[in-house]
Write a structure and sequence with these properties.
The structure is a homodimer. Chain A folds into two domains: about 5-135, Cobalt-precorrin-4 Transmethylase, domain 1 (3-Layer(aba) Sandwich), CATH 3.40.1010.10; about 140-235, Tetrapyrrole methylase, C-terminal domain (Methyltransferase, Cobalt-precorrin-4 Transmethylase, Domain 2, 2-Layer Sandwich), CATH 3.30.950. The longest helix of chain A is centred in the middle third of the chain and has 23 residues, at about 75-95. Chain A is an alpha/beta fold and about 240 residues long. Chain A contains seven helices and ten strands. In chain A, the strands form two sheets. A five-stranded parallel sheet of chain A has the order 3-2-4-1-5, with helices on both faces. A five-stranded mixed sheet of chain A has the order 6-7-10-8-9, sandwiched between helices. The model of chain A has no long low-confidence stretch (mean pLDDT about 95). Chain A starts with a strand and ends in a 7-residue tail after the last strand. The first copy, chain A, has helices at about 20-30, 45-50, 75-95, 115-125, 135-145, 165-175, 185-195; strands at about 5-10, 30-35, 60-65, 100-105, 130, 155-160, 175-180, 205, 215-220, 230-235. β6 (about 155-160) of chain A pairs antiparallel with β6 of chain B, so a sheet runs across the interface.
């Protein structure tokens, strides 16, 4: 029996009509749909894709062993998360070996910090794969707040807020346009870096972009805490045509 | 009479099924569709969106006064292109004032080097606007060649090949992951910068990603010339999970 194909499918930033036509069709015709989620939760990628999942589709929930209980720097986190990705990949491999195609749903764009990459990395040698791009969170956010990002020769830097404050500051100083991802607990670091780099006045904060409870404001008006689904946009500096 | 709404719609990198569901629906129901094109050509955005344009849709062609005949650095280029964007914006304004909604098609992602930004910039104060994100060329390309770009804390830099060689080299040295856009005539500069930054061995060249005549190879195996629709991907360097 032929083995199945692993489809890694980006479901975009939040709004169900921001999936691509290809992603929507693949999900609609999938016999198995897999996705990461937290214990007792529906799973964010699954919520976004919900309208496209048809009755009778087998759903494979990949439940994180922990989320924020352990710090990312803790060796236990690394060991625990790697073992989790190993187990999840094995679950998919078992289905693929039975000849089943598997669609893995991934928030935003799979190859830009997407967790589904860790499954792809583990399975790509052994199985046929396809990757369907998704609208990245940043694209969804800058479209929603109607903020053109790069004109002409602007360089865009996509920067994780998890970096040390000095690195954040340096990147913001150099970048023409910048997106700061993974804000979460790093708000005060991001604030300091925006001030030190002189980019605060142009920075826009966007929370849950394209989702129903979305919120946006100039960064210097936002609070001290941010949910996981938030980012900061700093538009480019070059002249417009 | 109420004025119309300007919809700036990303049509993605090339494949018709990589438009979002929202973009497809907007184009299908549009009474006016506008797009940039070259004299005597169909227009690339129009070609991508073709399957979604219905009979009876009014098509407004915005024909570039020149494309590669004048160098971008030439003051005549700047004057000519600005006058062209002014005229194009005026054409859209005339339709919007008559109460017509206008859908402007834009290759890739409108706010990432998209020409439609120059219309948006001119019309946003005067008319209601909506912006629909598109799959950016880079997302389409890295998905097609199945190259995960950013793991963990990788910084991604999106760099126009039009920059001076020393700047290209410096950006490539600093970036964890990099995308070089706007290759065109800048191939030798890009090659030198990849060698000088030590990133050549990881660099992948992708031409017309997701389009029917797409082509990809390691950068050091590719030729001396590149079409406009080409880019270079340098994946991130950080450890995988």
């Amino acid at each position: 029996m032929a083995t199945g194909t692993l489809h890694v499918v980006g479901v975009g930033p939040g709004s169900p009509d921001l999936l691509t036509v290809r992603a929507a069709r693949l999900i609609e015709s999938a016999s198995v749909v897999a996705y990461f989620c937290r214990e007792g939760r529906k799973g964010h990628a699954r919520t976004i894709a919900e309208t496209y999942i048809t009755e009778g589709t087998h759903e494979l929930r990949l439940v994180y062993p922990f989320t924020t209980e352990i710090a990312v720097e803790d060796p236990d986190y690394q060991r625990g998360i790697q073992a989790f990705y190993d187990r999840s990949a094995q679950q998919l491999a078992d289905m693929l070996k039975q000849g089943q195609d598997v669609v893995v749903l991934c928030e935003g764009e799979p190859f830009l910090y997407g967790s589904a990459m860790y499954l792809f990395d583990r399975l790509k040698e052994q199985f046929a794969t396809s990757v369907v791009p998704g609208i990245a969170a940043m694209n969804g956010c800058w479209s929603q707040v109607q903020l053109p990002m790069t004109h002409g020769d602007d360089v865009l830097c996509v920067i994780p807020a998890t970096l040390p404050e000095a690195d954040l500051t340096r990147w913001l100083q150099q970048a023409d346009a910048a997106v700061i991802m993974k804000i979460g607990r790093n708000m005060s670091k991001v604030r300091n870096a925006l001030v030190q780099s002189g980019r605060m006045s142009d920075a826009r904060y966007v929370e849950r972009g394209t989702q129903p409870d979305s919120f946006s404001c100039p960064f210097d008006e936002c609070g001290e805490t941010a949910p996981y689904f938030s980012l900061v946009l700093v538009p480019g500096r070059k002249g417009v045509r």
